[in-house]
Amino acid sequence: HDGYKVGADMLVSLEFRTSRSEGVFLGISSAKVDAVGLEMVDGQVVFNVNNGAGRVSVRSIGQMLCDGQWHHLLARKTKHALTLSIDGSKYNTLNPYPQSTSAETNNPVYLGGFPAGVKQNCLTIRSSFRGCLRNLQLAKSHLNIPLDLSSSHYLSGVTPYSCPAA
Questions:
Q1: What are the φ and ψ backbone dihedral angles of 68, each rounded to 5 degrees?
Q2: How far from the centroid of its chain's Cα atoms is residue 12's Cα?
Q3: How far apart are CA 36 and CA 103, in angstroms?
Q4: SS3 97
Q5: What CA–CA distances, in Å, run from 2 to 16, 24, 136, 152, 154?
Q6: Environment class of residue 83 by beta-carbon count within 10 Å: exposed (0-12), middle (13-18) or buried (19+)?
Q7: Which residues pair with residue 88 across a beta bridge?
Q8: Closest CA to 117 of 130, 105, 108, 104
Q9: CA angle 63, 50, 46 (to 5 degrees)
Q10: pLDDT at position 136 over 60
Q11: Burial of 125 (0-12, 13-18, 19+ CB in 10 A)
């Protein structure tokens, strides 16, 4: 989806299941440094944000999330903090750059991966997500936007509204 403005706050909510330990959930990145990235690295979820002053990250700890079971993920960016919730377990980190609170983007939202040649400033891996995603929502303040993948500009290796058996 084109032209998404992250700004001072945003929330990503989704459910996923996978047996792979690495994969991109979501990436939004400006041509400069402002960006948001949500990924699975070594079986843990990592949420990265750069409001222009430097990258801030929060990571899940413990249970391997590449177990083929459904997991509920909630990632929230506010002016001063990042929060990640996985199946009810919460992880927080404060923004150490109080003067920089807004990610200035007007760029595409990439789900499940991103094309070769596209730079994503807040993703540490290039591996496409392999598994199932459902109930995806992007929210800004109190405005929830369900993501309709069938209306995406470009689909590659995605079958909307289906999920193979694990």
A1: 80, 0
A2: 7
A3: 8
A4: coil
A5: 23, 18, 16, 9, 11
A6: middle
A7: none
A8: 108
A9: 10
A10: yes
A11: middle
Tokens describing residue 154: 């470009």
Tell me the pLDDT tens digit for each residue of 61-109: 988 999 999 999 999 999 999 999 999 999 999 999 989 999 999 989 9
CB 109 within 8 A of CB 28: yes
Sequence-distant (6+) residues with CB within 8 A of 38 are 12, 24, 25, 26, 27, 45, 46, 47, 48, 73, 75
CA distance 16 to 146: 15
Q: Which residues have a Cβ under 8 Å from the Cβ of 160 and sit 6 or more positions away?
A: 148, 149, 150
The separation between CA 71 and the C-alpha centre of its own chain, rounded to angstroms, equals 14
* Pair of tokens at residue 72: 């509920």
CB–CB of 84/58 below 8 Å? yes
Is this structure's pTM higher than 0.85?
yes
Distance between start and end Cα atoms, the chain: 28
Number of alpha carbons in the 13 Å side-chain half-sphere of residue 3: 0
For residue 105 the two structure tokens come to 């983007």
